[in-house]
User: Which sequence fits this backbone?
């Protein structure tokens, strides 16, 4: 029974303590005066009566009621019902004037002031029960009696209220009539009797009728079961206010211990919301701060660090704004605000979804049928009270699912005197497969759950609805969870039970309570203040009731205790939704077989299965299986094994433990714990090594929770055994005989405990004591046992090494000569526990002490929890150091013996093959190559598991090489090689690696290379850590040498270092003197008067020494020349330096310029005057621009002096120079750097702007303008248009050449231009001044440019903004003569003049940083360091994130635009950044696309040499090749270019002479530093180092190629690997590739790998395919042998094992020739021969036959080609091709044939034969006639002869350029006799006459015609 009300209090306004309008309340009266013993009076009630503060108001407010909740120090809640009304108060000023002693206010006013004011007064009822409605009625009644002046004394009503006693739940006694009342109330009213007729006694328990003696009656319904919360309709109300998602959010926040704040302007709603939130948390109880109504004065409580649920009036909203970690729920606005720093863990799926569905079905049942055509009638939501219970039913159902099976994870560790119960969290999460779930983890760790376990853990207690649900309804819940309708039915059943509990008799809910009459509330006469009550009278009531209670017999409520059901065990749950691995049965079979083999000593079989077992052990089922299998081999706690068995068992144990988490959620470590102390091996007499000394490396052994859970579980088993013995022995035996199911036995512990608890009260004192002692000694003995176990697993084998172990928990690995690495975690604990205990031990390295401390902490914790007496605890503390010491002594002997074991055999280290000149820096170190994120090699995608592999890593002067064999014995014969050049290393980071082997690897390295290789290596235990450090240092030294001369390309082969160094020094010396001579010569040539002038010095080059800059100043002094036009190259330089200059000429690609007609080196000045361009030697000393080549093409009309001034406007002095010319339109391509910022404005300034003084900047910009005009005027279209840009002049010149094609093309350019400049809008006719270029000049700065560039290029008109056509528009209807492609960010300000003939296209350039970052991401995408299951980290997603393809797209897009512009006759100047990155990419691609010559071997080489090397792309700097450039990082600009070429190659496979492999080869070697080609940043640097022109003799040394081109040439002669068989170019074909990202493919260079031989780009290291062919042919009689081989992905090179058809045929031919003993032909000769034969056959048949032409790729031509054009060398004589007559003449305008590509150059290809056959030739004087094999080569314009057809060496050449005529002749002396006369003919050259005779007249005629046709072509 409990009192309905503990205290009744009257609180009023305190007039004395009023401070500046802030009033205070004070308690006027309280009853009873004395505190109850069981419930002290709560302090601070006056604050809670007026939470917003005590204030006076000018008008009377309506009475208000709310319930506040106060929590006392014992965490009991007191409910304070506050009824507040407002009383008239005379003006408080008066009270201050008249200090009257009277209690009542004085009536005489001294000063007349404003009208009356009203003060609040509160009637407060304090109770421990929560009956809001009853309290409202009682306080309302008291107020009514007072206000209406009823005839009931207030003392009586109050006394009756305070003496009311009701049962807490389902009470047993009916309340008596009030003790003393003035009027007799009938004991039971008629209506009440009528209700109570049936089963009266039972009903009375839950019903209580009370009356306060004022003519009132109330019925209180007490809940049937008080453990279930009473919620009224507060839960439903909460959901209505906030909605489902918000309330779920608050629910999760409350369970995971966040701070929650409710805001509302209604106090009662705040209380209801808090009550509702607590109700849905049932069965968990909220145990933190809980204040539904917080007074304003206590707002600082909100900054408490602990979690809370608090309600605050919205009035204080502003003060809650700065709370950073509080979740704020606004009940009035329906919002929940979660701060950024707060993360609320949501419910696990699918629970969250199912809960939301169920809630929406309760709250909004119409939602489900909203779409139905005939919606059912009864879809209205239930009444609020019912709905409230339905919602609670959903949450009960939710908790039943969350906690199902929790009782199976309870450990009962004591039964008597009190049950002690612990919850095994890890096992619960593991069995539920929810280890990863954040929400459940936090809930189980929370205080609410701890209270739940202590309250609901005991097995013998009263049960409630939740116990029943979680135990007996699991099966039902599981079946229903998929069907929302069934869930709803269940929820409704639960709701009914909850409703019944709260309202046992809903029918009896009538109250009879008087309300105040309407007029009394408003009338003024009744407004007397609330009177003081007579305390004596009230106290009398209370005492009377107390005495009556004492005399009454005590009420004994029979508590229905019972055994709590446990429900079905957890195992079944997981089988349904746990993730069991596929094929698990097969895997378990493998594990079982392997263990059987080990114990049967079939070691070879076991070894084969081992890798499969180690893989299988990643699955939980296999690990459990392992522990079960091993258990069967333990006899009497011991199993002695031999060395190898022991080794295998330990490996399996380690692997099992390694993949377990430290929580041990599946109990694997727990199951292994007894086994590690059972398996052992004999090391010597009396010395045994147990398995535990080899499995100490795991985090789980350092986890205190693990040891506690293990301890409790063992104690539970022992206590169970203890009570099983005391019971009937026979029954126990019978249990054992029938092997009872596991579940029956498992139920045991809790069942027993329940039974014992039931019997406990019936036992005698002695028996009780005996049981308590037995239990305690059980716990004590287990504690000793665990102290031993822990010392086994925490003390390392080698305890002499007193060093601390790493804090990671995995200690420093100490190697033992045997394969066991043994150490422990003890040290790491030493560290952490010292710091926790508050002192740092100086000698904490003592392992023993730290282990003792750890065990002591453990023992303290478990013994306190299990109630062990202090004496026992002290005894334990005394024992522990002895246990540890004893164990250390045994370990010493074991350690000593284990060292003597023979080491385990490791695979032999394989040595790598080295290149000539490559030397080992560090010999092989044994390492393991760990698999990275690429899955092919690990066997996961099928194929053999090649990785991990064991072998060695070698560091050479050139490469890093790993060579070894896979650790999987089934793949053991394969050799795995992975290598990359040291120079390509981009990132190195240390990693710590754990292998599945028994060796625990101490450290590892992850090495990433920009050749797309990743090596994750783990050093073997035999490698000392300092050796690994030495390895890193050496690697760094090789990667970043001090100077470029330290790179492999320079140091190669320098074993006799001194000698070589000496020579190198000399050579450099000679170059320095040579360059000085050049300077002097130049000075002498130029007039002396300029010698002393110092000119403006350009910014010095970044990496230059001070000496160098002095030299530069010298050079600059001579930069102005006397008479430009009279000065040509040959006259400038003395003959002494001609040799070097010819080298410069060669290097500067003059031949290429000549081929394009861009200048000449001949002496006749008149000729060069007529040409628009000349070759300027101004930069021959690299004085004008350090990074440009020595010879430059500039306009003829610009003198050198102007150049030296112009160059200053450009960054790095890189002024515009011509690099290519379109042979058809004569448009030129120029390149330069971007302008200096100061030059930009001047450059675009209008020339007729008035300027008073011509400043220097003006003159420069004028010169610049002149320069651009000179370029424009060089174009024939401009000259023919008489120098003005009129429409007719412009079109007439080049439209007539190909009118139709250009018209078609124009719109395309416009579209291209818009794409390049980033505009989106393509609607015609919407151009305004800024619209079309919006994206380019978002800032509005660029409006200086004519916005109509894109429009005009698209051939559209642009409307003027003012409507009238402007003058400029008429003149600019066509394209500009020169387009300048500039960087958007650089081109600011300046005015565009409409009369200038150039236009600027601003584009956005990719920044170098962008390229760098993009490349890093690309590498991570293609070669990830670890496999990722995250879908956001898939290959394609990472590739997209890297934006590499976007960068390629941008470069290609700009290039295609430039190609289009050049092709339509406009010149283009690419002027981006510093002119050496993007500019180079664009310019090179443009030439490659426009000029077929650059798509041949020679042409591509020339292109790279010219644009990349001569024009100074900074290879060393961008490749971070030296220490100086290390910080700038690797930026693959050249690689980007090669990737673009690869993309074009894919789209036009027939246009390139070289193959894709050629591009990959260059991509690899441009970073490998094997060749000197791609070293250094410019030609001037190369000259300084003497690498530019190496002596011919030296270059040909067979040992080492210094140039990549020589190497390619040499290789190309041997093998067709670089050749593209599909090569059949079309004349003058301009390629226009698609540049959209969808058209681009990932280059396989980034993703391919060949583990069998490493990268295939160092050809000397490749196994040659020829050898295979020879081997096969050697053994023809070895019987039928399969020719098939298995080709594994990522291991074999596919192209090598399965060559393409043509390569295969060439190989077969070679091997056949070798068999026949013929000297083998070169592949190229053979290929050319076959092609020629093929062509002549095709000609004879006059229609291409399919069978014949299969081999000929030229017949696989594109659709757009016509037949007969694709023969680059035709065998038919009638097809005469235009050839150049001499190398010096200018090319003929028009469309020359492809053969001109070859005209002036020695081809590195073998000969091209147009016509061949035998001719007799007369020798020189007195020499006889001889038959020779003659070849007429039209491409090279030669007639060559050989001794025979097979002869490879040419015996002589007749240049057709020198032939004057060919005529028929007569036989001379000594001519062959048998030949007819007409077969003779003569060939007359400028030097001599050759006499020939053919085999017959016809042949002679053919020869003469062929030669003649060549001559006429020329």
Assistant:
């Amino acid at each position: 029974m409990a009192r309905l009300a503990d205290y009744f209090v009257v609180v009023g306004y305190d007039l004395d303590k009023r401070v500046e309008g802030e009033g205070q309340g004070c308690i006027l009266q309280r009853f009873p005066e004395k505190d109850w013993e069981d419930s002290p009076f709560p302090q601070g009630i006056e604050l809670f009566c007026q939470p917003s503060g005590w204030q006076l108001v000018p008008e009377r407010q309506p009475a208000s009621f709310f319930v506040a909740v106060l929590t006392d120090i014992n965490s009991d809640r007191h409910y304070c019902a506050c009824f507040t009304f407002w009383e008239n108060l005379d003006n408080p000023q008066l009270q201050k004037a008249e200090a009257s002693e009277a209690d009542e206010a004085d009536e005489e006013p001294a000063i007349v002031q404003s009208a009356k004011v009203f003060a609040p007064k509160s009637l407060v009822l304090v109770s421990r029960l929560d009956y809001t409605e009853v309290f409202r009625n009682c306080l309302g009644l008291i107020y009514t009696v007072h206000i209406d002046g009823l005839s009931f004394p207030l003392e009586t009503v109050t006394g009756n209220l305070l003496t009311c006693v009701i049962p807490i739940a389902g009470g047993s006694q009916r309340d008596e009539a009030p003790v003393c009342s003035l009027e007799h109330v009938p004991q039971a009213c008629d209506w009440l009797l009528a209700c109570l007729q049936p089963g009266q006694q039972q009903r009375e328990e839950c019903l209580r009728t009370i009356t306060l003696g004022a003519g009132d009656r109330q019925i209180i319904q007490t809940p049937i079961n008080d453990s279930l919360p009473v919620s009224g309709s507060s839960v439903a109300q909460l959901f209505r206010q906030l909605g489902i998602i918000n309330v779920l959010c608050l629910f999760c926040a409350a369970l995971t211990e966040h701070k929650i704040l409710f805001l509302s302007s209604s106090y009662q709603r705040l209380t209801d919301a808090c009550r509702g939130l607590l109700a849905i948390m049932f069965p968990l109880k909220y145990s933190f701060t809980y204040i539904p109504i917080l007074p304003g004065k206590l707002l600082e409580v909100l900054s408490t660090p602990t979690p809370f649920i608090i309600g605050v009036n919205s009035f204080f909203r502003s003060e809650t704004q700065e709370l950073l970690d509080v979740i704020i729920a606004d009940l009035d606005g329906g919002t929940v605000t979660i701060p950024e720093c707060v993360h609320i863990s949501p419910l696990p799926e699918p629970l969250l979804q199912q809960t939301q569905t169920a809630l929406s079905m309760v709250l909004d049942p119409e939602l489900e049928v909203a779409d139905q055509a005939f919606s059912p009638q009864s879809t209205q939501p239930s009444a609020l009270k019912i709905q409230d219970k339905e919602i609670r039913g959903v949450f009960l159902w939710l908790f039943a699912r969350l906690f199902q099976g929790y009782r199976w994870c309870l450990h009962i560790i004591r039964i008597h005197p009190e049950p002690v119960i612990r919850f095994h969290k890890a096992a619960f999460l593991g069995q539920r497969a929810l280890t990863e779930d954040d929400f459940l983890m936090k809930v189980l760790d929370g205080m609410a759950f701890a209270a739940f376990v202590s309250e609901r853990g005991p097995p013998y207690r009263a049960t409630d609805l939740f116990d029943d649900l979680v135990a007996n309804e699991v099966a039902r819940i599981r079946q229903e969870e998929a069907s929302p309708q069934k869930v709803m039915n269940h929820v409704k059943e639960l709701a009914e039970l909850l409703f019944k509990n709260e309202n046992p008799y809903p029918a009896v809910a009538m109250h009879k309570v008087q309300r105040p009459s309407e007029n009394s509330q408003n009338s003024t006469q009744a407004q007397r203040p609330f009177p003081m009550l007579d305390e004596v009278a009230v106290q009398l009531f209370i005492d009377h009731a107390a005495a009556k209670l004492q005399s009454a017999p005590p009420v004994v409520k029979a508590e229905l205790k019972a055994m709590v059901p446990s429900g079905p065990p957890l195992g079944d749950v997981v089988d349904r939704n746990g993730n069991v691995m596929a094929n698990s049965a097969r895997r378990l079979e493998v594990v079982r077989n392997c263990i059987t083999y080990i114990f049967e000593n079939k070691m070879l079989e076991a070894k084969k299965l081992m890798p499969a077992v180690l893989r299988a052990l990643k699955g939980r089922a296999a690990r459990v299986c392992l522990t079960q299998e091993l258990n069967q081999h333990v006899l009497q706690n011991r199993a002695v094994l031999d060395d190898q068995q022991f080794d295998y068992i330990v490996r399996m144990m380690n692997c099992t433990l390694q993949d377990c988490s430290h929580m041990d959620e599946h109990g694997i470590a727990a199951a292994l714990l007894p086994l590690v102390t059972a398996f052992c091996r004999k090391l010597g007499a009396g010395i045994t090594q147990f398995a535990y000394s080899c499995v100490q490396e795991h985090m789980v052994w350092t986890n205190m929770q693990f040891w506690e859970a293990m301890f409790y579980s063992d104690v539970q088993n022992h206590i169970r055994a203890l009570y099983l013995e005391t019971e009937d022995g026979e029954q126990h035996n019978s249990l054992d005989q029938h092997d009872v199911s596991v579940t029956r036995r498992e139920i045991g512990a809790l069942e027993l405990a329940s039974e014992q608890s039931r019997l406990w009260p019936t036992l005698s004192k002695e028996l009780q004591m005996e049981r308590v002692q037995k239990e305690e000694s059980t716990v004590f003995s287990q504690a000793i046992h665990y102290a031993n176990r822990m010392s086994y697993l925490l003390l390392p084998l080698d305890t002499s090494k007193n060093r601390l172990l790493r804090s990671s928990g995995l200690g420093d690995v100490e190697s033992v000569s045997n394969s066991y690495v043994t150490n422990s975690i003890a040290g790491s604990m030493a560290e952490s526990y010292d710091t926790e205990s508050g002192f740092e031990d100086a000698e904490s390295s003592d392992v023993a002490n730290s282990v003792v401390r750890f065990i002591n902490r453990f023992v303290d914790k478990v013994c306190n929890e299990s109630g062990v007496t202090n004496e026992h605890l002290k005894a334990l503390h005394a024992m522990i150091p002895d246990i540890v010491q004893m164990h250390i002594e045994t370990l010493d002997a074991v350690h000593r013996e284990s060292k003597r074991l023979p080491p385990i055999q490791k695979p032999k280290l394989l040595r790598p093959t080295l290149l000539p000149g490559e030397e080992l820096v560090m010999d092989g170190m044994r390492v393991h190559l760990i698999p990275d994120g690429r899955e092919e090699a690990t066997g996961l995608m099928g194929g053999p598991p090649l990785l991990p592999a064991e072998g060695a890593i070698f560091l050479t002067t050139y490469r890093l090489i790993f060579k070894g064999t896979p650790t999987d014995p089934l793949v053991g014969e394969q050799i795995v090689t992975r290598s990359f050049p040291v120079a390509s290393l981009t990132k190195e980071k240390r990693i710590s690696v754990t292998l599945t082997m028994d060796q625990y690897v101490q450290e590892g390295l992850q090495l990433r290379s920009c050749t797309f290789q990743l090596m994750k290596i783990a050093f073997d235990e035999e490698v000392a850590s300092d050796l690994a450090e030495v390895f890193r240092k050496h690697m760094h030294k090789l990667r970043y040498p001090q100077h470029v001369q330290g790179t492999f390309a320079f140091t190669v082969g320098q074993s006799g270092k001194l000698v070589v160094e000496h020579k190198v020094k000399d050579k450099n010396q000679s170059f320095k003197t040579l360059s000085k001579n050049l300077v002097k010569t130049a000075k002498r040539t130029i007039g002396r008067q300029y010698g002393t002038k110092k000119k403006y010095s350009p910014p010095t080059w970044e990496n230059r020494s001070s000496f160098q800059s002095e030299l530069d100043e010298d050079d600059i002094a001579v930069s102005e020349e006397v008479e430009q036009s009279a000065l040509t190259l040959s006259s400038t330089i003395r003959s002494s330096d001609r040799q070097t200059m010819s080298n410069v000429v060669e290097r500067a690609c003059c031949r290429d310029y000549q081929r394009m007609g861009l200048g000449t080196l001949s002496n006749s000045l008149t000729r060069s005057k007529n040409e628009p361009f000349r070759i300027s030697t101004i930069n021959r000393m690299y004085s004008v621009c350090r990074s440009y080549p020595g010879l430059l093409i500039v306009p003829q009309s610009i003198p050198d002096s102007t150049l030296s001034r112009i160059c200053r406007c450009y960054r790095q002095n890189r002024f515009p120079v011509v690099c290519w010319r379109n042979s058809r339109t004569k448009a030129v391509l120029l390149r330069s750097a971007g302008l200096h910022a100061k030059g930009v404005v001047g450059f675009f300034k209008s020339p007729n702007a008035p300027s008073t003084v011509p400043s220097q900047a003006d003159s420069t910009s004028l010169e610049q303008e002149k320069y651009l005009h000179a370029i424009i005027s060089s174009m024939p279209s401009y000259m023919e248009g008489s120098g003005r840009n009129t429409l007719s002049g412009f079109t007439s010149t080049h439209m007539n050449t190909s009118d139709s094609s250009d018209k078609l093309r124009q719109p395309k350019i416009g579209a291209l231009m818009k794409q390049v400049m980033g505009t989106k809008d393509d609607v015609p006719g919407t151009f305004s001044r800024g619209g079309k270029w919006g994206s380019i000049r978002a800032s509005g700065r660029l409006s200086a440019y004519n916005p109509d560039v894109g429009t005009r290029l698209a051939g559209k008109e642009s409307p003027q903004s003012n409507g009238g056509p402007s003058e400029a528009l008429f003149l600019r209807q066509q394209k500009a003569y020169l387009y300048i492609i500039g960087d958007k960010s650089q081109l600011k300000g300046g005015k565009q003049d409409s009369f200038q003939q150039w236009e600027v296209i601003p584009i956005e350039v990719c920044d170098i940083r962008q390229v760098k970052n993009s490349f890093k991401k690309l590498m991570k995408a293609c070669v990830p360091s670890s496999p990722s299951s995250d879908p956001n980290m898939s290959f394609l997603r990472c590739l997209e994130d890297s934006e590499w393809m976007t960068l390629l797209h941008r470069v290609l897009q700009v290039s295609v635009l430039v190609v289009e512009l050049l092709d339509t006759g406009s010149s283009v100047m690419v002027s981006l950044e510093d002119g050496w990155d993007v500019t180079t990419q664009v310019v090179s691609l443009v030439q490659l696309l426009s000029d077929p010559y650059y798509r041949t071997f020679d042409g591509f080489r020339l292109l790279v040499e010219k644009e990349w090397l001569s024009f100074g792309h900074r290879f060393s700097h961008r490749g971070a090749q030296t220490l100086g450039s290390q910080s700038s990082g690797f930026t693959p600009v050249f690689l980007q270019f090669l990737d673009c070429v690869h993309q074009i190659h894919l789209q036009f496979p027939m246009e390139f002479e070289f193959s894709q492999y050629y591009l990959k080869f260059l991509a690899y070697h441009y970073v490998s530093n094997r060749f000197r080609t791609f070293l250094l940043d410019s030609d001037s640097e190369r000259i300084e180092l003497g690498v530019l022109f190496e002596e011919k003799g030296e270059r040909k040394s067979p040992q080492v190629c210094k140039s990549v081109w020589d190497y390619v040439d040499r290789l190309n002669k041997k093998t067709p690997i670089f050749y593209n068989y599909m090569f059949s170019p079309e004349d003058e074909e301009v390629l226009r590739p698609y540049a959209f990202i969808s058209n681009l493919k990932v280059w396989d260079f980034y993703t391919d790998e060949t583990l069998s031989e490493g990268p295939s780009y160092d050809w000397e290291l490749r196994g040659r395919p020829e050898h295979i062919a020879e081997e096969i042919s050697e053994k023809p009689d070895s019987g039928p042998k399969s020719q098939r081989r298995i080709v594994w992905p990522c291991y074999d090179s596919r192209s090598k094992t399965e060559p393409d058809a043509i390569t295969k045929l060439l190989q077969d031919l070679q091997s056949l020739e070798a068999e026949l003993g013929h000297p083998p032909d070169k592949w190229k000769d053979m290929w050319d021969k076959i092609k020629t034969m093929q062509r002549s056959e095709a000609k004879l048949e006059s229609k291409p036959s399919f069978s014949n032409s299969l081999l000929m790729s030229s017949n696989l031509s594109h659709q757009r080609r016509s037949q007969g054009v694709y023969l680059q060398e035709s065998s038919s004589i009638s097809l005469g091709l235009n050839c150049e007559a001499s190398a010096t003449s200018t090319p003929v305008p028009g469309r020359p044939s492809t053969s001109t590509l070859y005209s002036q150059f020695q081809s590195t290809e073998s000969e091209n034969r147009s016509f061949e056959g035998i001719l007799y030739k007369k020798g020189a004087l007195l020499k006889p006639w001889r038959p020779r094999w003659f070849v007429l080569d039209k491409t090279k314009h030669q007639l060559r002869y050989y001794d025979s057809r097979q002869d490879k060496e040419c015996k002589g050449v007749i240049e057709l350029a020198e032939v004057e005529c060919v005529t028929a002749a007569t036989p001379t002396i000594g001519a062959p006799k048998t030949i007819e006369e007409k077969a003779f003919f003569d060939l007359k050259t400028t030097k001599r006459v050759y006499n020939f005779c053919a085999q017959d007249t016809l042949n002679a005629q053919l020869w003469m015609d062929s030669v003649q046709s060549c001559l006429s072509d020329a």
